[in-house]
Specification:
Chain B: The chain crosses the membrane at residues 103-126, 138-167, 179-198, 233-259, 279-302. The complex is a heterotrimer of chains A (283), B (314) and C (647). With 283 residues, chain A is of the alpha/beta class. Helices cover 36% and strands 23% of the residues of chain A. In chain B, helix 5 (89-125) crosses helix 11 (241-258) and helix 9 (209-216) packs antiparallel against helix 10 (221-239). The chains are: A alpha/beta (283), B mainly alpha (314), C alpha/beta (647).
Chain lengths: 283, 314, 647
Amino acid sequence: MNRLELRGVSVRYGRGRNAVTAVSGVDLDLPAGGAVGVVGESGSGKSTLARAVTGMVPLSAGEIRGDGTVLRAAGRRPRPHPEIQMVFQDPSGSLNPRMTVASGIAEAAGRAGDSGRTAVRQALDLVGLSTGLLDRYPHELSGGQRQRVAIARALAARPRTLVLDEVTSALDVSVQALILNLLRDLRAELGLAYLVIAHDLPIVRYLCDSVAVMYLGECVERGPCAEVLVTPAHPHTRALLDAVDTVPGTVSGTVPDTVPGTVLAGDPARNLTRTRKLTKEEK
Amino acid sequence: MHVLTWAARRIGVTAALLAGLLVVSFLLLHLVPGDPAVRVAGLNATPEQVTAVRQRLGLDQPIHRQFIGYVAHVFQLDFGRSFQTGEPVTEVIGSRLGVTLRLATAGIVVTMSAGVLIGLVMGALTREGRRRGAEASFALGTSLAGAVPEYVTGALLALVFSVVLGWLPVAGLTGPSGLILPTIAVSLAPAAVLSRIVRVETLAVLAQEYARAAWAKRLRPLRVYGVHVLPNALTAALTVGGLVFAGLLGGTVVVENVFALPGLGSKLVESVMARDYPVVQAVILLLGAAIVLVNGCVEAAVRLLDPRVRAATS
Amino acid sequence: MTALTGQAVPQAASAPERRGGRRAFRSTVVGPVALGVLAVLAVVALVAPVLGSGPAVTVRAADAVLGPSAEHWLGTDRLGRDVLVRTLVATRTSLLLGLGAAAVAALGGVILGGAVAAAGPRTRSAGLRVLDAVLAFPAILVAILATLVLPQATGSAAVAVGVAGAPGVARIVVTLAMTVLVRDHVAAARGFGVGRIRVFVRHVVPNMADSLAVSLSVVAGMSLVVVSSLSFLGAGVQPPAYDWGGMLSQGVRDLYVTPLVALAPAVMIALAGLAFGLLGEALARVANPSLWTTGDAGRDRRARAASGAEGAADEAPDDISEGPALLDVRGLTVTVDGSPGSAAIVSGVDLRVGRGEILGLVGESGSGKSMTMLAVARLLPYPVGSSADTLTLDGRDLRSDRPRELRRLLGTGLALVFQNPAACLNPALKLGVQLTEAPRAHRGADRARARELALAGLRDVRIPEPERRLRQYPHELSGGQRQRATIAMALVTAPGLLLADEPTTALDNTLRRGMLDLLRDVNTADGTAIVLVSHDLSVVGGLCHRIAVMYAGRIVEEGPTAEVMATPKHPYTRALLDSSLTMTTDLGRPVPAIDGQPPRPGEGPPGCAFAPRCALAEDRCARTRPVLREVPGGRKVACWVDEGSLA
């Protein structure tokens, strides 16, 4: 699969009167070996989009095509596609605490015996971890090592596309840098395509070629990073850019008092309800 | 409006549970292996007697008719007559209800107040891993109290307070003092279990940011525990309140037998032994209905106490 | 039987550590004791019926109701049978029936619960509702009714109790399975194309097995007790067979004459029930690593701390610039358990915060920055302890250990905001209560005055309709309003100093900006001094007048924000700055990263703690620790490397 196309992708949770639309009518192209960032505030639907792409939630409308063939569509039961893999935010939750590094990666590789062992070693090698860690359990590793194992495990499934869901936000700044460098190297080395979900714009700018801005479940702006993040067209993109913390070395001037249309933190369900209401008002 | 919706849904669930209870109590007689009529008439009865019983109970009718007849009788509060004594079942139950009601009420009051108070105090004393010794003794003590069945507790209490010390009557209902030992026997295990739950919940609340914020406001400890911790711990106590009540009721059945109290529980056991089905059916219906209604009330109380639940269910 | 229904469902364990688990089991003491008791009971159950079945049933009217004697240690019952022998012989029946009941409950419960857990969401919620309804009925009642239906045989009691216990086990199985099913590693495994059954076997079952074992141990104890209760009521084991419950039932009748007849089986039931219960508790501790005591590890740390301290360079008393400070901290040391020899989390920290100043305290997780702040507020968690040469707020000494005095000194002088500001509000209390209690407690304000203060506080943080807010619960406010209300709550006593511990870490960029903005307003409007603790230099950079960088429990660099950010003097500060991404980061090069990890308290080299990770480290760096020295420009740095080599 060389090219991933999202057409009119919508995801709804619940049914009847309580249904809320988390993602609505999103179009997105992820070219082979490309990297697209999806940015937005918490509650904007970016994580739900990632889960839709990886088949963890069903689509309520639209379809996702890989190389022109339909991979997922509304009304179709989502099935796993090994060529699309996800790396999760928190490695302490995404690694099975009862499985060693080796068995976790072997399971993802789907191969047993010698070829499985080779695959495990290759994957560890790719993320720069020593094979001495093979028999360790996740809790015996540091946070950075754990996230590397999670990446190695995803790679063992031989994906063409990696969905990276806030993969550095649970890590210390110094460890973040290590993981980001690794991800850039891997992309160059393996020709992987990335779908990067993040609320932190500098990370998307560093990892991606182009970016899509999500707001209240919809994609409000997309284009090359060099354009969207430099000369934003949509007011919400501007607001997000304004909210990026000041560049170290300069003490910031005044800041806009509130960002227009802020979706407020809290429990996700509440956010989604607000989302629905606001989208209605907008229309 | 949403309160009404919630209430309507809750009433619907209660009605469904009561209907289920009717079915179960009805089927009880039919699930017993062998011919119910033979069971009722006794193994030595002549075929004529058996036929007579079958007709009298309507057992020759198709099963759905029997059920309709059963329900009709239940709604007229007519449960038939006791096989053992020939008295109307309603009278048998009526004479026994008071004791059980008093014992269960006393038990639940003691359980709730002791369980919440002890759990809260122990939670406060052992927060952040303080006083490991006290925590270990508490764990051991509540394990013991929770593991010893009510009738053993009852027997031991009777032994100490009635036989050795002679302070309280050993058995039978002789005024209010006769209820003291049974109440303790009924409450000890549920109170121990509840106090453990409340302690764990207290520790959980104390670890929350809002509890740290309350300490940071430099409030007096009594205010922190009383105003900030207690409501949350109480909610936890109430959510398991239904289960505690079920345990208490089960304990009541047993303890009435230990202290020879003329309550519903001792009547139930006696009737089960004697295969006195009409009485068994009626007692099961009554106890079951009490459980269903109490659980409904508990849910309403939780909703009233906890604004978050109120928001989530509306 | 209460505990059978009222048992709190244990959480599925997350991270097991086998060696640690075994040590935890031993350290519970009760675990091995419970196992020992059960082993003795098992031997008795095997041996006693073989040796004692004769004397246990032989009726000797002449020996009836004897007291304890050399021949009959526990006396005899109404029919002249030896109480001790009968009690021991009854062990086999009692244990077998209890375990049989537990087996029925476990088997039925696991099958039932597994089916419900594995079903689709609709079936599952319906199944759960039915289970909960059944669970509302006392197990003993269900068991009594089940004996009605079952044939009158000894094994029936076990089946009846097992049937009564099965729904409880099923409920536990469903709860455990559901907590595991929502974890990311299950989602990841599905993503690899691992099949449904394999996911259940490899990912769900291993993660709930420990907790299930705990529950089943408790269920075994409860089943034993319920079976004996049934026998006591006459619905269990039927004469001439007997178990403890049946013996007790007869003994209670003779309580006045021979209390031992009732006491002996009562003690056995309590003992067996307790042993199973305690075994479950010990297993629960093993299954939950957060309950493991640190025992040995703590001792190791202390030992290492004691040896590591020798290599430290002479502590030159720092000459802190003159003039009255709002907060003055000198020589603050925080140790893991407060004793002098224990490992230090914070060592010899000096901090001065002037009136109206915003100080940023920066460092990685574990650098000691939060502990420094909590030590200043005198709110350290047990058993962490602190000492300081000077600790004054507005000239008043805060080193008192008397709660009353601390309340007086700190109640109005200092306020705190924690990591997730919105979570600082108690969900069960209206805002009115939470905003007025501090002024009423510390400012002696009456109800009306406190309300005025609260309203003014809400207005200051620009929350609309403040009167209405006071009558609302926190969940009725939006997330942003909750954060603002928390700030208002902290400031309602008009403290001179606000300590904010990572107040933005849990927030996304937009909300983070709002929070920083609010803190700045508070500072400029009221002159409130702020200590902002954060791991993120970019957060601190936009707000603070001065920055102090912490590493491994010590301040390594301090100075005005602009200067520190522009020309960091400590290699660690430089590395931290370089490794954080910005919108102007050079895309052509890898991000400079700091390899390795900071040392844990009490570990690390005798010299500079950063030396092992430092690109510029020299020989002496690892040997001798550099002290924090003043350098031109009102700055301080603790580094041997010449500032010239860093530029």
